[in-house]
Write a structure and sequence with these properties.
0% of the residues lie in helices and 22% in strands. With 81 residues, the protein is an all-beta fold.
Length: 81
């Protein structure tokens, strides 16, 4: 709790970033509307269709518009959307 983590250390190259967060039990913390596939072993996006058929997990991501800034801070709280 109350920790700041630099997830992306380099300058942002894209206007939109996608966030997915889970608690220590694997339950989603953010309620995003953009579905993507992730690998079971590490967060690695593998397309957006047929996740289960390809052995991946379907996860919901929050789309964040960084307004083309090279640095962006996202505050994740207990009441995050």
């Amino acid at each position: 709790a109350n920790q700041c983590v630099n997830v992306i250390r380099e300058e942002l190259a894209n206007r939109y970033i996608y966030l997915n967060a889970t608690d220590v039990f694997g339950h989603a913390i953010l309620n995003g509307s953009t579905e993507m596939c992730i690998d079971r072993r590490r967060l690695s996006i593998r397309g957006i269709e047929e996740c289960w058929q390809r052995g991946h997990i379907a996860a919901r991501f929050v789309e964040v518009d960084t307004l083309e800034q090279v640095r962006w801070t996202y505050f994740l709280t207990g009441n995050s959307p």
